[in-house]
Amino acid sequence: MSYLELEHLTRHFVRREGWPIPRKTLIRAVDRVSLRIEQGEILGLVGESGCGKSTLSRLIMQLLAPTSGSVILEGQRLADLPPTEIRKRRRDFQMIFQDPYASLNPRMTVYSTLAEAILTRRPELRRNRAALESAVAVLMARVGLDARYIRKYPHEFSGGQRQRIAIARALGPEPKLILADEPVSALDVSIQSQILNLLLELRNELGLTMIFISHDLSVVRYIADRIAVMDEGKIVETGEADALFTAPESEVTRALLRAIPKIRHRAAAS
Ligand SMILES: Nc1ncnc2c1ncn2[C@@H]1O[C@H](COP(=O)(O)OP(=O)(O)OP(=O)(O)O)[C@@H](O)[C@H]1O
Ligand SMILES: [Mg+2]
User: What is the bridge-based pairing of β-strands 42-46 and 226-231?
Assistant: First the structure.
């Protein structure tokens, strides 16, 4: 049994365009996507802007209802569960976004942000300030942040450090699945590899399952075990990361390969 299975998952949007007579157009943002993700696996999801990656992640996160199809978690169809049970399961899924500055609350210190995340799983710590503070320090150490910065605010950190805070916040509720949507796209190349290495370490140490979304195939190759290529709402190719690079089957994959900057090609080959 796979940890997570998507079965013909579909989401349509209706857009009204044109004036004075609006026309309705149907957008198949996610179109009959079927995928299996094994426990502890990093699945890379790659595709051009607008192909439906974020919509697919919102469907998995239960932030958006599917038009049809199912999300099956450990053999159980999520749509069949009562809402309270879905809320409980949702804690096992956490997200990391492209822009940590936008996703972190600027008025909250690292301590408040991380304490809040930890309390969702361990509410009993609310009455034990010392234990909560040490849990925050453990979380900071896990993502490579110095506990001296515990009272600082997001704007006092660099972009890479802010993404570490966002990763620590995602780990707070002790998730099983991390959904990372373009988590390094806003970072300098040198910082990107540090964050990718951190995510790999966390997968190895905590046995996390990950879905890693990017438009950049070279980034996905670095981190993913298996890659799914998406185009116009559909999965057009899946394969082991290396195989997909050496023998791409679809034209979409070949186009994504061509889009990788030459300098990165050389770095990957050396
Ligand atoms: N709430 C919505 N209402 C209408 N259309 C939407 C909505 N959300 C997404 N779409 C459309 O669905 C398609 C897929 O969008 P989505 O954001 O999932 O793509 P993406 O692959 O994440 O793109 P990017 O790489 O730019 O983040 C796009 O055509 C988008 O305009
Ligand atoms: Mg997106």
Answer: parallel
